[in-house]
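Person: Show me a sequence?

Helper:
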Amino acid sequence: MMNEKRRTLYTVFLAVFTAVLTCLPAVKTYGADSIVIRSVNLKFDSQYGSEEILMPGITTTTTGISVKEVIWKRDISKWKAGKNERVSVILTSDSTIFADAYNRSECKITGAKFVSAKALDNNTLEVKADYVPVVILGKTARAGWSDSKKTKAVWEKVEFATGYQVALYADDKLKKRISVETNTIDLSEYMDKDAVYYYEVRAIGYSADDRKYMKEGDYVTSEDTIMEYDGDTTGVWKGNTYKQEDGGVPRNSWKQILNDWYYFDGNGIRQTGWLQSGQRWYYLNPKDGKLLMGWQFVNGKWYYLNPGGGEMLTGWIQPQPGVWYFLNSDGSMASSTHVGSYWVDASGKWIP
């Protein structure tokens, strides 16, 4: 009876021991004369292509190891300069064996960022890294000025560029150098004198980090634009006051500066918002005090300011041939209502 119990206990113990062994991870074994590789290195050699992204060269100087295969996660046609691209580099060794895994200090990578390094078998190691492509930026195909505004520079975008450097010239003298993220910029604040203006523009990496991976392109010169102003061009702004060439400031009067009109009070301060001058009302840009004209949306209502002088209009107006609107006595546009026997719709137009 006692022997039967012992045999049963031994059988149970053997079953449990076998189950435990089955659950344990496989243990990597090495031959007595095997040499384990303690450290690995990889070098990514960036290749700068002109207006195109090229594959980097990938090498190792670790003795007895060679690069067998390079597998990129995405096709090179989808790469962007300055953006991480994941790669798997397969290393092989004939005479030595790899450890199960390596950390970043054991697997040293230059020219890319370490992600992981794990053995596929004794003689094969997969190293994953993030590489950042580089490029020499091209030049814009065209640089000119907007048809709607003479002071607005516009040029065609350059592939991979994250910014542009613009150098503005007035009568062949450098006026201003500025960097922007878009392919257009209004240069009106620097084009404040009668002169012949042009600019040079080149593609750049906008941020300091972008410039690590993008080499700037060549400058392209725009065509000329000639600025001839009707108003004063000799004074300078001092905050909200305009100091004229003779040292005086305009007071209680209108003043045309460049091509825009401003109104200055008795202290020489430019005014903004609604302004009554004589029997007429005007609306001055709340941001910079420039006299506004045409249709303006103010505090939820539409107003029409005479394009020829800026004064607020009332009554029936015909801004376009055959298109009529009615403006109330406060200048606001009537809509969705009868004006006498006439009906104006939601847009304010008279409907015959």
Notes: Residues 2-23 form the longest helix (22 residues). The helical segments are 2-23. Residues 211 and 322 are 57 Å apart (CA to CA). The two ends are 117 Å apart (CA to CA).
